[in-house]
Amino acid sequence: MNALKDTATVNEDDANLLVLIIDTNPLIWTKSAKSLSLKEALRHLLVFINAHLALKHDNEVAVIASHIGVSKFLYPIPNPSRLSENTDQAVDSNLYQRFKVVNDQVISNMKDLFEDVSTLNSYPDKASSMIAGALSMALCYTNRIMRADEIGHIKPRILIISISPDSPYQYISIMNCIFSAQKLGIPIDVCKVHSEETVFLKQAAHLTGGRYLKLQIPQGFLQFLMITFLPDRFTRNYQCLPGEEKVDFSASCFCHKKMIDIGFLSSIRTVFNLQI
């Protein structure tokens, strides 16, 4: 999806649905705590979400946590009445009520997620999070919203805050999500906060017409969010950002789950690193 195509499909008056996926891998966030802790990052992300909602009254947002062994909606949640029992319901005249509802739900559900350690003990690959599962949830939610919007007024996009390294075991699932997003015309933006570059998500941003940013200055996290990822799809057609770096199109082999540049393709389009 290029800029010319997007100009024909988006309008200045369109509402914007932002689906934010936060990589909440506690092991990797602990390593990066000196430069940017999860608590600080969440505070910046809540300001970013509020700014998105403030841009237009009919803008919508959804927040999904990509954790170790599980993906979970932080906002909206199926049963908000359960949350209301555990949060302060006092009305603050200095705070827009919609901001308070989103902030309270995200913070409360994030706490619940970290208090539940069952997935940490049962999931073998603790170096990565369930980014494929979170992407699937984001696409399903977005597709449901788009189907309910008969006039095509809502224009969705996905933003992934990534901190974990690539997991070759999730390669096929991630690629399926990329192709689904491409077919639906949903851009996938990626902000890589820590660790080395993520090959799979860089491919996702490139193939769906999204933006990829490797955060070089963690202290400027909020500023980079506002400048690079806050503009909607219509505004992006008039922005001039630095050119995209070279994209690595390496794949993960089906047999050994290793990253390879050259492999063997079977009749069912499965990649192997050895001839069979």
Automatic annotation (TrEMBL):
Role description: Component of the general transcription and DNA repair factor IIH (TFIIH) core complex, which is involved in general and transcription-coupled nucleotide excision repair (NER) of damaged DNA and, when complexed to TFIIK, in RNA transcription by RNA polymerase II. In NER, TFIIH acts by opening DNA around the lesion to allow the excision of the damaged oligonucleotide and its replacement by a new DNA fragment. In transcription, TFIIH has an essential role in transcription initiation.
Record flagged with keyword Transcription: yes
Protein family membership: Belongs to the TFB4 family.
Alphabetically ordered keywords of this record: DNA damage, DNA repair, Metal-binding, Nucleus, Transcription, Transcription regulation, Zinc, Zinc-finger
Species name: Rhizophagus irregularis (strain DAOM 181602 / DAOM 197198 / MUCL 43194) (Arbuscular mycorrhizal fungus)
A cellular component annotation (GO) from this entry: transcription factor TFIIH core complex
GO MF entry, a single one: zinc ion binding
Compartments reported by the entry: Nucleus
Record-given protein name: General transcription and DNA repair factor IIH subunit TFB4
Pfam families reported in the protein's UniProt record: Tfb4
Assembly and oligomerization: Component of the 7-subunit TFIIH core complex composed of XPB/SSL2, XPD/RAD3, SSL1, TFB1, TFB2, TFB4 and TFB5, which is active in NER. The core complex associates with the 3-subunit CTD-kinase module TFIIK composed of CCL1, KIN28 and TFB3 to form the 10-subunit holoenzyme (holo-TFIIH) active in transcription.
GO biological process, one term: nucleotide-excision repair
Family annotation (InterPro entries): TFIIH_Tfb4/GTF2H3, vWFA_dom_sf
